[in-house]
Amino acid sequence: MRSVQVSQPGMPFLVSNTDRPAPGKKQVLIRVSACGICHSDVFVRDGLFPGLSYPRVPGHEVVGVIEKTGEAVLAWKVGDIVGVGWHGGHCFECDSCRKGDFILCEHSRVTGISFDGGYAEYMVSPEEALARVPDGMAKELAAPLLCAGVTTFNALRHSGAVAGDLVAISGIGGLGHLGIQFASKMGLHTVALSSGKEKEALARSLGAHDYIDLSSGDAVTALNKMGGAKVILVTAPNSELASRLVDGLSPNGNMVLVGVDANPLSVSPLQLIGGRKRISGWPSGDAKDSEETLRFAHQAGVRPMVETYPLEEAEKAYQVMISNKARFRVVLTL
Ligand SMILES: [Zn+2]
Ligand SMILES: [Zn+2]
C-alpha cells in the first residue's frame, strides 16, 4: 500500500510502498478515505514528542471504512464508516480510565504518534479510538472535526456557557473558524476577535454576531461594553493577547485555552480573584466526544473550510499548512 512516512526527525514526507498492516484482536483495519493535516503533525515531522520511533506515518484526523475487524471486536463491522482522532486509545486501568475520563489516561496513546496514522491507504486502529461518522457526511469535511473540531466543540460545551451567554472566540484560523460556528450553533452570543477589518465579513459568515478588530481600539473595553464575556475561547497562539483579554471576562467568566504558544501567560492574581474568574485549558476529546462532534456538526451545518490534496502531495500540503497559508484546514484525500 502507499503510505507517507517520516523516516527521521526533520526529514520531508516520503511516499513509500509498505505492507498493509493486519489488525490485532481488538483492532480494526481501516481503508482511509481522508486524513487531515494538523499543526500537531509537526511533532512527528520534527521529533518533538517524547518516545517517538521512526519511520512513522503521521495523521490523526482520519476518516475511512472498516475493511477488517480483529477477532475480539464486537461493536464494529466491516463497512462501517469511522473516524480516528488524536486520542488513539487508553489503558482502561488507570484512575482516569476507571472514572471514564479516557482523554486523561495516564497511558493514553496518540494516533499517528504512538502508532502509524492516516497518511496512508490503510491504517490499524484500536477499537476504543473509533468514532462513528454520520451517514452522508463528506469525508473531507469530517476529517478536521476529529481534532480541531472536537477540541473546540468539547471546550465550548464544557466551558460553563449556556444559550444566550456572551462567548468570545479569539482567532479565526484552523480552530477559530470552527469555534465560531460551534458557538453560534449552540445558541451562544458569539463575538469573534481578530486583527483587521477585512476579517469581519468572514467572521459574520461563519455565524459571529459581533466582531472586534484587535488592531483598532481596545478589545477589553469593547467586551466590557457588552457586559463581559462568560467565556473566552483562545484559539490564537498568543499568550500576550490572552493575558490582556482576561480583563474582558464577566464575573465568574472562564478563559479556555486551546491554542498553544511557547510563552507564559502574565496575569495578576487580582485580575482573577475579585470577579471569581478563571483560566483553564482543554485537551481534545475521546472517541465518543469525536462522534458527538461529528453528529452535532452534521445536524447543525458546521462545516470546516478545507483545501484538499492527494496523498502523494503530502509534503506540499504540509508546507501550505505549516506556513499558515491554508484556509483553514488541509486534508489529504484518497
Ligand atoms: Zn491535531
Ligand atoms: Zn488509563
Automatic annotation (TrEMBL):
GO terms for molecular function: alcohol dehydrogenase (NAD+) activity; zinc ion binding. GO terms for cellular component: cytoplasm. This is Putative alcohol dehydrogenase. Belongs to the zinc-containing alcohol dehydrogenase family. It comes from Leptospirillum ferrooxidans (strain C2-3). InterPro entries: ADH-like_C, ADH-like_N, ADH_Zn_CS, ER, GroES-like_sf, NAD(P)-bd_dom_sf. Residues 10-332 form the Enoyl reductase (ER) domain. It comes from the Bacteria. The lineage of its organism: Bacteria, Pseudomonadati, Nitrospirota, Nitrospiria, Nitrospirales.
